[in-house]
Amino acid sequence: QVQLVESGGGLVQVGGSLRLSCAASGRTFSNYGMGWFRQAPGKEREFVAAISRSGGRTYATDSVQGRFDVSSDNMKNTVYLQMNSLKPEDTSVYYCASPLGLVLGLKVDDYDYWGPGTQVTVSS
């Protein structure tokens, strides 16, 4: 009932920037917000950032705090992840995800719908 599609990934040099987008369609009116996760080769999927439906509350994991910013455009049903000062360890497939309930959790199990992901590669 909810479809998510990420875009904006690509190859970037260390210190560069990328802006990811997540376009949502379907039953999104009851969605409390959106989460961003990433998964690097050989690693588990991890939380990156999240934003409430209104955009009034945002969260980010310590490793990206001060470098990544999450925002939303509700008129376009789109959320964004602005990534600055990129590091090689940021290399991952990035996913946006819709939460199960009204709480923006930090765990994979707190989300029910996922986009197919977009690859971000930071060269060194």
List the helices and strands and how they pair.
Blueprint: E1 2-7, E2 10-13, E3 18-26, E4 33-39, E5 46-52, E6 58-60, E7 68-73, E8 78-83, E9 92-99, E10 111-114, E11 118-123
Parallel strand pairs: 2-11
Antiparallel strand pairs: 1-3, 3-8, 4-5, 4-9, 5-6, 7-8, 9-10, 9-11
Main sheet? 7 strands, mixed
Strand segment count? 11
What string, H for helix and E for strand, traces the elements in order? Answer: EEEEEEEEEEE
**For the residues shown, what is the average pLDDT?**
92
Unreliable segments (pLDDT under 50, ≥5 consecutive)?
A: none
Q: What is the gyration radius calculated from CA atoms?
A: 13 Å
Q: What is the CA-CA span between the terminal residues?
A: 40 Å
Helix content: under 10%
Structure description:
- This protein is mainly beta and 124 residues long.
- Helix content is 0%, strand content 53%.
- It contains no helices and eleven strands.
- Strands 2, 4, 5, 6, 9, 10 and 11 form a seven-stranded mixed beta sheet that branches.
- The protein is globular.
Q: Which features would summarize this protein structure in a list?
A:
124 residues; mainly beta
